[in-house]
Specification:
Distance between the termini: 61 Å
Largest sheet: 4 strands, antiparallel
Strand order of the largest sheet: 1-8-3-6
Number of strands: 21
Length: about 625
């Protein structure tokens, strides 16, 4: 192959979709190309239809206009146009203009058709954009090929290495301890036939028997933990890790179709790369000072790096990172109660925003509030809760979860209210949805109880869902608000970038990629009366309830995962480089594969926003 053709082949090999061709096929392409030089101001094509060729910009810059002379896209080195590269109907009428002296490669449409027929990977690029392409793309975004080793794809059943060790509930404590010693296990299952009724651990024997001098001839049911938490064997290992991390226990019975399959322990994760969350949480509950919690919190960026390197899904990473934040919050509340005494009336500490949705990544500001029992008396109880919330929010700030700029925190008197007061808030926001109320609902309609009296939260949640379910006027306002953030995609699928300032030539993956999907899912969930808070969970539920089509919900879930994964890997790279993680990404940092599928994700969001608009804003 001539030197010039080799140079062209190397250029093609670095750009999508040509980099999907096998070596034998890509070696054919340079000889099939026409090489054209268009001077500044020249019209492209200068004859025929733009669909007659697939154009690849080698150097220079090209603008694409429609028949009304509206600017649709600005293209540079490595960008494609013509043929069906735009994935849009009617694009044969478009025209290009060389904005600079430009060198362009032209591949005849007949040759593109031939490659599409012979090479499925190449053909895939020219399929209509949307969820189908995106679903396949998600599995190809990993950087180290180690996803098969990760807890995110490992089923719990695959981690169980031995048959379950069990005893009947009427066995003596002495006999049970002997079996545990002989089998060298730190816990044992208590079963009646095939039904699990309890669990006993080494710690139970120490605290409930030895420390109290209990008669060891008593039945083991006397000290067992009845009806323990369980998971099914076909669940994924990261779910087990989250259960153990959030509830601070180290033994989890596993069932298979309702029957005992075995026991999973914290030590089973010891050689698993992503399990540091379990040990971080375990360490959290051993701390007695805020400084210790801050030290643990400082390790979260490394945890995010590890999870990203293990090719974990964005949804999984959000759950894991949030589990650590939850534990820090709970421990701060425990320390506050040790300092100030037991609460005078029951309360529920509520997380809002991304923590409530279990979607945290790198550290962010805090959003929280307090719901107190209606027996709350401001004069008698006000100082206690002011001190408690101040201690916790100050502690979170010290741990890197900075004070909310809008003061949406439990330290603010307005967001520290009895249940009746919160009901009045939601009633006002729903009945009179002015702009400020809609802004607040975007925060306070994503709530999750972290600690305290969960029944207070359940009552509030039931109240607000009853008010929003089927409330077409309010939902129309929420839909309008949900359309305020648009994906950064122009009419011709070109990225719309920030111009000037600190984040010049970037787009905001959070506010223009993640937030639009979160907002769509929230509207669907409120319309359906769904209790789900996590965005992926909301989209699963509303699809089955008919608020959105199965296809639309599936596409949104895939878009969320793809954008979220790019965001996490972007932040992981920044952390590794010693930079503060943010949400601003330049398209220059994306591979051609990522650019193409990120555009697919943004197209899905834009389409679903149009569907929402037609449903509620007609």
């Amino acid at each position: 192959m001539e030197i010039e053709l080799i140079e062209i082949r190397d250029f093609l090999s670095a750009h999508h979709p040509f980099n999907q061709l096998p070596e034998q096929a890509i070696n054919q392409v340079p000889a099939l190309l026409q090489v054209r030089y268009f001077r500044r101001g020249t019209t492209i094509p200068d004859s025929g239809s733009i669909d007659d060729f697939l154009y690849l910009v080698r150097s220079g810059a090209v603008e694409i206009h429609n028949t009304q002379d509206e600017l649709l896209a600005r293209l540079g080195e490595g960008d494609l146009f013509g043929y069906r590269a735009s994935h849009m109907e009617g694009h044969a009428e478009f025209q290009g203009t060389a904005m600079e002296d430009s060198l362009v490669y032209l591949l005849p449409a007949a040759e593109v058709d031939r490659f599409c027929k012979e090479q499925p990977q190449f053909s895939y690029f020219f399929e209509p954009a949307g969820g189908g392409r995106l679903r396949d793309a998600i599995s190809n975004t990993g950087e180290d090929g180690s996803s098969h080793l990760g807890l995110m794809t490992t089923q719990i059943g695959d981690m169980i290495s031995r048959a379950p060790i069990s005893m009947p509930p009427d066995a003596s404590i002495q006999d049970t301890a002997t079996v545990m010693s002989d089998e060298r296990v730190s816990s044992i299952l208590i079963t009646e036939g095939e039904r699990l009724v309890g669990i006993v651990t080494d710690r139970d024997l120490r605290r409930r028997v030895v420390a109290k001098g209990l008669d060891t001839s008593l039945p083991i049911s006397h000290i067992m933990t009845a009806d323990p938490h369980t998971l099914e064997a076909n669940n994924y290992a990261f779910e087990a890790m989250l259960h153990m991390a959030r509830d601070n226990f180290h033994h989890l019975p596993i069932l298979r179709q309702g029957k005992v399959a075995g026991m999973l322990t914290a030590t089973d994760f010891a050689e698993r790369h992503t399990t540091s969350a379990v040990y971080l949480v375990s360490s959290v509950y051993k701390q007695h000072e805020v400084q210790g919690l801050a030290s643990i919190s400082s390790r979260i960026p490394q945890l995010l790096q590890n999870l990203a390197a293990a090719d974990a899904t964005a949804n999984s990473i959000g759950h894991v990172i949030t589990a650590v934040v939850d534990a820090i919050t709970v421990r701060l509340l425990q320390l506050a109660e040790e300092r100030f005494g037991p609460p005078p009336v029951p309360y529920a500490w509520i997380a809002a925003g991304s923590q409530a949705r279990s979607e945290q990544t790198a550290k962010s500001d805090q959003d929280n509030c307090l719901v107190m029992d209606d027996a709350y008396d401001p004069k008698a109880h006000g100082e206690y809760f002011k001190a408690l919330t101040g201690f916790v929010c100050d502690g979170l700030n010290a741990c890197g979860y900075v004070y909310c700029p809008g003061e949406m925190m439990a330290t603010t008197d307005k967001w520290r209210q009895p249940l009746a007061g919160w009901k009045r808030y939601f009633n006002h926001w729903i009945e009179q949805p002015e702009p400020k109320a809609l802004m607040l609902t975007c925060v306070f309609f994503d709530l999750r109880c972290i600690h305290g009296e969960k029944n207070l939260f359940r009552q509030l949640r039931e109240y607000l869902l009853a008010k929003t379910r089927g409330n077409q006027i309010f939902l129309a306002y929420m839909a309008g608000n949900a359309l305020s953030f648009k994906p950064p995609l122009g009419f011709f699928r070109n990225f719309v970038l920030i111009s000037g300032g600190e984040h010049d030539h970037t787009f905001d993956l959070k506010h223009n990629g993640i937030v639009p999907i979160v907002d769509l899912a929230r509207v669907y969930a409120l319309a359906a009366g769904s209790h789900a808070i996590n965005t992926q969970d909301r989209l699963k539920e509303v699809a089955s309830g008919g608020e959105v089509s199965h296809g639309g919900a599936h596409d949104l879930r895939d878009a969320l995962e793809f954008v979220g994964s790019l965001r996490i890997r972007h932040q992981a790279r920044q952390i590794k480089a010693g930079e503060a993680p943010n949400n601003y990404m330049s398209p220059d940092d994306l591979s051609h594969f990522e650019r193409s599928h990120l555009k697919d994700a943004f197209s899905v969001v834009r389409t679903m926003q149009n569907v929402l608009s037609q449903r509620y804003l007609r």
